Each structure stands twice: as structure tokens, then as C-alpha cells.
Amino acid sequence: MEAQGSRRRQLPVLLLWVNGLMTLGFAGARQRTDLCNESLMLEKLPACGKSFEEMMKKVDSKKWCNLTEFIMYYDNFTQCTEREANNASCFWPNPLAEGFITGIHKQFFSNCTSEKVHWEDPPDEILITLILIPVMLTCAMITLVVWCSKRSDIL
Prior knowledge:
Elements: H1 2-24, H2 38-56, H3 67-87, H4 95-109, H5 124-150
Helix pairs in contact: 2-3, 2-4
């Protein structure tokens, strides 16, 4: 019985010790302490842009706004920028990489504007029908509720 009480007192100490080990990273999680080498990353990113530019020369400039024409090239570009950022011990995306990617977008996709949808009202016959159906159903439901509440003796 006394041994059981001793174990109960040791349990919180054991739990604190395990928590400390996990916090320090001994539980399998490796903490990354490398600092981001921004100058190395900025030195390597233009190679990704150059490669993307070479691939985009294969696509007619009139089709630059059609993503299906160059999606593979853009995917390669994205993977390249991510790889170079990781090689420089930087997270991706980061403000510097985003600035570089934005510059590439301005270079290739600045003339791509989204077409705005022009919304129109439906024809009057359809609009009147769409308005009257819920109004009539609401009136019918109110009538049914009132009628049922007055005839509660039958129900």
C-alpha cells in the first residue's frame, strides 16, 4: 500500500521529466536552427526565372494568359524557387521570394485581366414566377397553421 502511494507521488515528476524531454526535442522532432541566407537565395532565384523565361519562349505570347498552355513550366518554376529557398535555409514562400515571383508575374502576365461577368436580371416572366412561388407558399403555410390551430379539437 505504501509502495502504491510512493508511485503516485513519483508520477507527476515523471510526467514533468517526459514533458521536458519533448520540449527539448529529444522525442524525435529536430528543431531547425539554421539562419536564412537571404543573399544566397537572391543569388540563386534568378536562375529559376531565366529557366522559366526560356520555357515561356516556347509558348505563343498570345497564349500566356491561358494557364493550361504553360502549367508545367510554371510548376517547374515554383518548385525551383522553393528548392532554392530551402537550400538557403529559408522558409518558402517568404517576402523576398514572393517579391521575385511577383516580378516574374509582372513580366509575363501583366496583360492578363480577368473578364468581368456582366450580371443581368432574368426576363420578367421568370422573375415574377420566382417571386410569387415563395410568397404563395408562405401564404398557404400561414393559412394551414391558422386553420389547424382553430381545429385543434379534431387533431
